[in-house]
Amino acid sequence: MLADLTAGTSPARLLVVCLACSTALLGCGGSNQNTNSSGPSSGLPDRSFNVQTDQPASGLHLSAADCAKLADQLGRRLRREVRSLPEPSPPLSRCRLLAAGVRVSVFLDAAYAARRRYENRMTEQAQFGAPDPAKVPHPVAGVGDPAPGEHFASWVPAYSTLFAVRGNRWLTIAYSIGGEPKASLRIGAAVLAHQAFRLSAG
Asked: What are the backbone dihedrals phi and psi of residue 28, each rounded to the nearest 5 degrees, phi first?
């Protein structure tokens, strides 16, 4: 098609046309800084009120002692002994909580741009999980950073997993308790998230 448009054009004029096209193409490519495809027209949460720059990694993590405290809290709630298996190295730390019928994993991401990765993950989950209600994020009040719609904490029932972010700490809690009603799984994960955020605050 370009050949048809430039047929019979002198080399100098052709060069001008090519340069003009290149400039137009460069102008169309938006920068990566604080871009946001969400909003009312996209069907995703409007995050324009809280535009963030990417935050650096930190030394915040879940220590072995923190993991033991999480195991103790969960054990008291379930009225059984829960073992803790810590993996405390920052900026990606993990705490596994295990007992008969209990498989809980608490993962803390405090690496560079963790907050942005959380938002990207939830956007993808909303897009690819639809139209199944069990696979799309459900807002959880009072767990993540305050925001309209509570979209900084999300429960995905199909995975029995809570995702939440505070500052540049992204917390993922996979919460599997045998025999526990589905409605209480989200509550239990939220309680654990509150303590994990408090313990890892530094």
From this structure: -75, -25
Q: Could you tell me which residues are beta bridge partners of residue 50?
A: none
Nearest 5°: the CA angle 157, 159, 164 is 80
Q: Fill in the DSSP letter of residue 150.
A: G
182-199 and 64-78 helices, crossing angle to 10° = 150
Q: CB–CB of 122/154 below 8 Å?
A: yes
- Tens digit of each residue's pLDDT (9 = 90 or more) over 131-150: 999 999 999 999 999 999 99
| Distances from the Cα of 192 to the Cα of 73, 94, 134, 160, 202, angstroms | 8, 13, 21, 14, 17
pLDDT tens for 7-36 read: 444 433 333 333 333 333 333 333 333 333
Give the span between the Cα atoms of 186 and 141, in whole angstroms: 11
> Distance between CA atoms of 87 and 96, rounded to whole angstroms?
8
Position 185: which residue type? L
Which amino acid, 92? L
Which pLDDT does position 182 carry in this prediction? Answer: 87
